[in-house]
Each structure stands twice: as C-alpha cells, then as structure tokens.
TrEMBL record:
<feature type="transmembrane region" description="Helical">
    <location>
        <begin position="75"/>
        <end position="97"/>
    </location>
</feature>
<dbReference type="InterPro" id="IPR048447">
    <property type="entry name" value="DUF1980_C"/>
</dbReference>
<keyword id="KW-0812">Transmembrane</keyword>
<dbReference type="InterPro" id="IPR015402">
    <property type="entry name" value="DUF1980"/>
</dbReference>
<feature type="domain" description="DUF1980">
    <location>
        <begin position="130"/>
        <end position="229"/>
    </location>
</feature>
<keyword id="KW-1133">Transmembrane helix</keyword>
<feature type="transmembrane region" description="Helical">
    <location>
        <begin position="36"/>
        <end position="55"/>
    </location>
</feature>
<protein>
    <submittedName>
        <fullName>Repeat protein (TIGR03943 family)</fullName>
    </submittedName>
</protein>
<dbReference type="InterPro" id="IPR052955">
    <property type="entry name" value="UPF0703_membrane_permease"/>
</dbReference>
<keyword id="KW-0472">Membrane</keyword>
<dbReference type="Pfam" id="PF21537">
    <property type="entry name" value="DUF1980_C"/>
</dbReference>
Amino acid sequence: MNRLAQTALLFLLGATLLHAGLTDLYLRYVKAGLRPLVLVAGVVLIATAAATLWYERRRARGQQHHHHEPRISWLLTLPVLALILVSPPALGSYSAAHTGTALTKPFGFPDLPAGEPLRLGVADYAGRAVYDKGRSLRDRELKITGFVTLDRSGTPYLVRMGLNCCAADAQPVKIALTGRIPPVLSPDTWLEITGRYTPRRTKDPVNDGPIPYLDVTSARPVPVPTDPYDETWNT
C-alpha cells in the first residue's frame, strides 16, 4: 500500500463516518449523545487524507519512486467495508436472555406528567416499581414499548437495552409480563404494552436482579424504533 492508497482509505473512512453521523446509522454502534464525536472524527479523517495527499504530491516532485508502507496497512479497509456493507441489527433477545438485568436505583423520582395514558420507558417503570414501590404508578394507565425475550421456562419479558457508551457494553433492563399477554410471543418482537402497575416481583434467572411485573391490559406490535437503545437510565 502506498501513500495514495492510504489517503483514499482515510478519505473513504472519514466520509463513511460523516454519513453515519448525519443519518441514524451511528445509533447501531454508539449512544445518541456521541453523534458530535462521530462527526468530528469523520472531519478529522478527511482533513488528514487531504493533508497526506498534499504532502505526498509535494514530496513526489523531487523523487522518482514511491515508498510503500507495510501490507498490514490494508487492514484499514476492514472498518470501512464493515460500515459500508454491514448495518448490524440492534442487540436483542439473545443478548437479553443471557445477560442479567442492569436495573440500578435512580438518584430520584421526578414528578410524572398528568394525563392518561402515561408513556414510560422500560427502565423508568422498573426503577419506580422496584425502588419507589410503585407510589407514582398506582392507578395510572401506562404505555411502555420494548422487545420481547423469553427465559428458559418461557416467561415473557419486555426489554430495552441501555448503553453506557456503545453497543459493546449494552445491558438489558427487564419487565416481566402478566395479565392479558398475547397467546403467541416471538423473541425480538417489538410491542407497545398498555397496562398497570402491580407489586408483584421476580428475580432475574441470570443474576438474581430484581424484575418487576406489569399487568398487561393490551399489546400491539410496533416497528423497531429509530433508536432501539434506551439511554434514559444512564444520562
């Protein structure tokens, strides 16, 4: 690989990062708050490619040969091809079934807005149900969206994966379902659940973490959200 090939790869990788950051593609890899860093990285790579090209042309004026870099440099093509050719799905039921719930006690419980139904995130409901004993949830009609996972016994959970930084460190928060559960549930199906708080609890079979139940009154399939990860529990 010569410097010109390196320049082309740097430019292509930078352009790919810009494309990911300007669209929703980056949400498959990192949390939404990191979009500015993705864009900055793309700009830096493109600027580096431009500077490398300028330096190489300047040097080439007084030389008759091209200096070749080690062949291992071609590994730069791998992240480029991965970003261009592969759009990985968000982590789903397999990861959730093999990872214990990451529910932690929130610092506090802000007042919830008035009006029915009340839309909550999976982590918000789970935190209030477990650590606030459902005080703010009682007698409220709730709507919660997540994907389905089943444990080894077939118990259904509504799950949302949360990120600390990127998809590599994603962890699930789970809600167990009871009540009018659909008769057939497929893992990774996204559902909008309407239901009410119940004090019933269980423990995650993976790490014995607390999992609250939700008393389901209705459920309907919904498309995968633009941002499939839940960051509200880690902001």
